Amino acid sequence: MFIDTRRVESGTHVKAAVCIIGGGIAGITLARELEREGVDTILLESGGFEPDDQTRDLYRGDDVGIPYTFADGCRGRFFGGSSNCWGGWCRPLDPWDFEKRAWIPDSGWPFGLDTLMPYYKRTHELLKLGPSNFEPAWWEKAINRQDVRRFPFVTGKVRDTISQFSPPARFGKLYREDLRRARNVTVYLYANAVNIATDAGGKQVTQIDVATLTGRKIAVSAQLYVLATGGIENARLLLASSQVQKDGLGNDNDLVGRYFMDHPRLQSGYVYFSREWSRNKLYDIKYHYMNSAVSAGGTHIASQLALKEDVLRQEGLLNARVWFASIFPGEGSAGAQALFRCKQALLAKEQAGWRLRDDLMTMAAHPVDTFGYGFTRLFQPRYLIRGVRFQIIVEPAPCRDSRVTLSPTRTDSLGMRRVCVDWRLADQVRRTFDRTLALVSDELRRSGVASVELDPPIEGGTWPSSFEKEGTWHHMGTTRMHESPKSGVVDANCKVHGVSNLYIAGSSVFPTAGANFPTITIAALTLRLSEHLAMQLKQRSGSSQERAGLDAEGNGMLAAARTVFGAPALRRGALR
């Protein structure tokens, strides 16, 4: 059931067994799982079913570190959350991404890949993926095309990996009817959580204070609470909930908001393929993204290049992924950008301020660039390609000083302090860019696939102009997971250390980020969390029933005693 909070009377206090804050991938997944368990659940969503600029504005803040775009277009503050602007890439983290790696300070998860694997498998139905299979050889055979082939890897240092594409699943549309018909889940739209209230000691959440942009205020109480508002907003709401703990909730060790991560991305170098490999689509983002030629059984896939685990260990490198990006006629022009935005619109991807009419006029004003880019993209004539570059993303090393804080002066229309994002990247990230590209280039030369012209190294220098100021829209790490409260905000079950009934879902709990796309891991962690919450509620229910049984037994004894001794004797404590 859906309720427009703007129509709820101010001062209303509603209750449920579980309150979920945030209607994105984590929040909707959790709500659906709790519905199956018959758990009375309230889900709070800041926006409605469509984007609006007043709600979008609540996400805006200041970048105070590396120049960084993190609001408009990079996140979606309406039902479905960031699934509304998601590209659909899916691949589980590598096994070593979970391990404590001696050359990466603060690395390591409380559990390994084997713990998450059953949940990764379950995400395939949720995210509308293909088989739970990421073996490159299997997909090459299943596709069976001459222009979709794996490279021969001869150095023993480089491997290829497979990613699958979700359609992509827009959760707000895909699962809207499920929640509309739900018997146990109530979704409050336009409901902005502005404070997490606790008891006097800050050890137990007592209610969520909710406000609408129209001035209505309500409260929600539950047995368990789950914060699922994204890698930036999770930290923001904890820091803003400072009525009892002045530094924010769950922040006894000054960790909330720290270790902010995103995957840095850039283009570099030029790749000159041999004739045999010049038409291969498997590793080129211009050809493998949602391309029916690079698919099997209705599942679109893509392949990326990566270094093997022993090479990362020997070289002291972070994880990374490399693929190619062909340069088309008109690349980067106003007409090409307008055409690309129209394609994104066909994928139902949120684009702040996008208007079809404006882009049609832009394309009409730049016909040559628009036609050249569109024709090459559609028909893929290799003779029109103006070059091929590497595109690479690198795992961000955990950095304590990369963080989300609250603005000392700026507030939003709800009176909440806006965020300041200080994105920092360690020197190890730059070295990983350089060495990964050098080793991949050497592999291409030795295998006869291509010759390569590398850009100058970036270690010790400045970021190149191709460095993406919006990262990859993967906001992670600000409420990191660790068994010790001195090193993490949440424990292995995603419960906030020191708070008995508050949990966090989403990529903010990632201790490290790997070099893979976080959505599938968010979904897997949420499925695991749903089982834990259901178990906790059953245990609480069992304890309540036991107490009720003892109370009933005691009342029976009291009644019998009254018969024998009379009420005055009981008042004097005759049965003590």
Overview of the molecule:
The chain has 576 residues and is an alpha/beta fold. It has a domain at 1-88 and 92-128 and 168-261 and 474-576: 3-Layer(bba) Sandwich (FAD/NAD(P)-binding domain), CATH 3.50.50. Helices cover 30% and strands 20% of the residues. It is built from 15 helices and 20 strands. It has helices spanning 25-36, 53-56, 113-126, 136-143, 171-174, 176-180, 233-240, 285-288, 309-315, 334-346, 356-365, 367-379, 427-446, 519-565, 567-571; strands at residues 2-4, 13-21, 41-44, 62-63, 89-90, 158-165, 185-189, 192-198, 205-211, 217-227, 265-268, 270-273, 295-296, 299-307, 320-327, 387-394, 403-411, 417-422, 450-453, 502-504. Strands 1, 2, 3, 7, 8, 9, 10 and 20 form an eight-stranded mixed beta sheet that branches. Strand 8 and strand 9 form a beta hairpin. Helix 3 (113-126) crosses helix 14. The chain is globular. The relative contact order is 0.18. Mean pLDDT is 92; it is low at 557-576.
